[in-house]
Design a protein that fits this description.
Blueprint lengths: L1 H20 L12 H7 L9 E6 L6 E6 L4 E5 L21 E2 L2 E2 L5 E9 L2 E11 L4 E6 L5 E6 L11 E2 L5 E5 L21 E9 L6 E10 L2 E7 L7 E7 L8 H4 L6 E7 H9 L4 E13 L4 E13 L8 E6 L3 E6 L5 E6 L5 E5 H9 L3 E5 L2 E4 L1 H4 E5 L6 E6 L4 E6 L4 E6 L5 E6 L4 E5 L12 E6 L15 E7 L6 E8 L6 E5 H4 L25 E5 L2 E9 L2 E3 L2 E6 L3 E8 L8 E5 L7 E3 L4 E6 L5 E6 L12 E7 L8 E3 L3
Length: about 650
């Protein structure tokens, strides 16, 4: 028995030695080699090389990770209420979620894209789209907070968004679901020929980033899935994948898969821009919200817009052409040179690559194969650059490295495939776990990719993590692509359902990340800039409490004279001027979330007391050794009470 035990231990020890010596990167049942672990290890006190911004899908928010560690740093609230910080609950941020449908506290967030200058990432802002209630948001990459949200009229399923032109002149939003324009009551089965797909071009003011819906191109009633800008030689063009060119309105999995080829729409936005600037287009009545957050007042405002300029593409000859693309293309990606437009047909085994130069030559030579609703269709062979054969099954998305290679996800065969741009030859392929949808290379959607890592965002998790009931967080995987062959080096869970991601070097953002809001620059209407300014004021049934916080007390912390039925506004200013020292606030019976107030910032929380008594409030964010002592009381008297307002601290 002892001999058997000794033999087993010897065998296991030898196996461990052999496994530890294996540096080939090969995996068995998902296990990784030891050198893979070294590649993702970020030692305590050290920081990641890249930021990665992953869309949260149905969470409505944007998540921030580090690469290569896969550590999640922050969830940025955008389209959804977020009780962690009070976004969408505080009076200052409620206006950010206003729409033409009223207050909408949720959305399905897709497709982050980082601002660019000359086709290279500049790290000023990141743009994201709300898919359900069509909206585009601009997030500051200094404060990592949502600064602006604009609603998109005449749109539904705002999916081929929110991609930018290479100098951030425009952020583009394309409708996935075509709809009646303008919206009206009509039979659904009259869809064909009557519904429209709107492609919206939203200008970005270069200094502050403010958004304005400049014009909408009203396209045939197809589904517009994804898009990317021309760059370099193709600057001035934008490319949109389409499916359902059959214009089916029911059982689309069958009825929208009849045509062998759908289209990539090539849009000459420069030509349309000139047409609109010269007075072209039609002003159409509309109703959509434009919400802006002012950093100096720490307050959001919402304005309803009443008009939009629409463009009939047939009135602007030479502005739009259709490139035939097999089959139900999803991804529509442009390589760093701007020469090649990649169409990934979900129902195709191959990847179709179009040539921009050949497209221009075909246009000039009038190499047309008919038209669709007055828009010329270019001959397939005249615009084709090449085909990546036997790539896999179900191609979806492509990004690029800095060595002339492309990486495409294949959903059905569950793999990432590396291929050469120009020869169209497959170089490598690696399995994903499981059913990969999107992928991201930092800068991979720009003229300057950083080809060190690719992140695969998988749709199915199954056995990758410990089970957590019927629902699992989605699985993401990091591959080292610095060599000729890809190497899987790490798995990490993601929040919500990532539909796309954007990444950039940490050195682009970290040095300019805002640490505090200066108290002397606080322009909030209800700011309490010194403890001496703290007070309580009544205006009928409204009570305004001007309150300051600093470690470790509120000023004031005892308040009397509040009555049942009052509407009490706590205007709280954080007097800290030290990095990473927020203060929170919550009071018992509050029908909203707590709020988190950053150093130098003012936020407002509303409380409507319904019961008499003495009710405590406290700081919700651990701020000091005396955090537990950071509390106060509000006395609530009957509605008929004559008790005068009073407030104290330390008395």
């Amino acid at each position: 028995m002892k001999k058997l035990r000794y033999s087993l231990l010897t065998f296991l020890g030898l196996a461990l030695v052999l496994t530890g010596c294996n540096d080939t990167g090969k995996s068995s049942n998902g296990a990784l080699s030891s050198n893979a672990a070294e590649k993702v290890y970020v030692a305590p006190g050290e920081q990641d090389e890249f930021y990665a911004f992953l869309s949260g899908g149905y969470s409505g928010n944007l998540t921030v990770y580090g690469l290569p560690s896969g550590r999640m740093f922050k969830e940025i609230p955008v389209f959804s209420q977020f009780p962690t910080s009070g976004y969408g609950y505080s009076e200052e941020t409620k206006p950010m979620l206003n729409t033409s449908f009223g207050f909408v506290p949720w959305d399905d967030l897709h497709h982050p894209d980082i601002s660019q200058t000359n086709g290279e990432l500049d790290g000023r802002w990141i743009f994201v789209n709300g898919n359900n209630t069509p909206r585009i948001a601009r997030v500051s990459l200094s404060t990592f907070e949502t600064e602006e949200i604009i609603e998109i009229p005449n749109s539904a399923g705002n999916h081929s968004s929110s991609f930018i032109t290479e100098n951030t002149e425009y952020v583009v939003a394309g409708t996935r679901f075509s709809v009646p324009v303008p919206q009206r009551d009509m039979p659904i089965n009259e869809y064909k020929g009557n519904f429209k797909g709107a492609l919206s071009f939203i200008s970005v003011e270069p200094e502050e980033g403010h958004l304005n819906l400049e014009f909408q191109v009203l396209m045939p009633g197809f589904n517009y899935d994804l898009s990317h800008p021309g760059r370099g030689k193709s600057h001035g063009w934008f490319f949109f994948s389409t499916y359902n060119t059959e214009e089916a309105n029911s059982l689309l999995e069958v009825m929208a898969s009849q045509n062998d080829k759908d289209f990539i729409a090539a849009v000459n936005w420069k030509k349309i821009e000139e047409y609109v600037k010269n007075g072209g287009g039609t002003k159409m009545p509309a109703n959509y919200a434009h919400n802006v957050y002012d950093e100096s007042t720490h307050t959001g405002t919402s304005t309803m817009k009443k008009e939009v300029v629409t463009v009939d593409p047939t009135k602007v000859p030479g502005s739009i052409y259709f490139l035939p693309t097999p089959k139900s293309p999803h991804g529509c990606d442009v390589d760093p040179t701007g020469q090649y437009i990649i169409g990934s047909g979900k129902l195709s085994a191959d990847i179709t690559v179009h040539s921009f130069d050949k497209m221009i030559a075909a246009i000039e030579g009038e190499k047309f194969d008919g038209e669709a609703y007055g828009i010329p269709i270019l001959k397939f062979d005249e615009v084709l650059a090449g085909i990546v054969k036997s790539g896999g099954l179900g191609p979806l998305h492509t990004e690029f490295d800095d060595k002339g290679n492309a990486y495409t996800t294949f959903f059905i065969s569950s793999e990432v495939v590396k291929w050469n741009v120009g020869s169209w030859e497959v170089i490598d392929r690696k399995p994903t776990y499981y059913s990969v949808g999107h992928l991201m290379i930092p800068g991979g959607n720009s003229r300057k990719p950083f080809g060190k890592y690719v992140v695969a965002m998988n749709k199915i998790t199954k056995d990758r993590y410990l089970p957590t009931g019927p629902e699992m967080e989605h699985s993401a995987q990091i591959y080292d692509i610095s060599g000729e062959k890809m190497e899987l080096i790490y798995d990490f869970p993601t929040h919500g359902e990532p539909h796309y991601a954007a990444g950039c070097p940490a050195e682009l953002l970290a040095p300019k990340s805002k640490k505090i809001y200066r108290l002397d620059e606080n322009k909030h209407e209800y700011a309490t800039l010194t403890p001496a300014d703290a007070r309580v004021e009544r205006n009928g049934k409204e009570v305004h409490i001007y309150m300051s916080t600093i470690r470790s007390h509120f000023t004031p912390d005892n308040i009397e004279g509040i009555k049942v039925g009052d509407k009490v506004y706590f205007h709280i200013t954080n007097h800290e001027q030290d990095f990473d020292v927020p203060h929170g606030f919550s009071i018992i019976g509050q029908n909203t979330s707590e709020i988190l107030v950053m150093p130098g910032q003012t936020k407002t929380s509303v409380w409507e007391p319904k019961k008499e008594g003495v009710w405590p409030f406290y700081c919700t964010d651990f701020c000091s050794a005396l955090h537990q002592e950071m509390q106060g009381y509000v006395r609530v008297s009957p509605a008929s009470s004559n008790i005068e307002l009073s407030w104290t601290l330390g008395e």
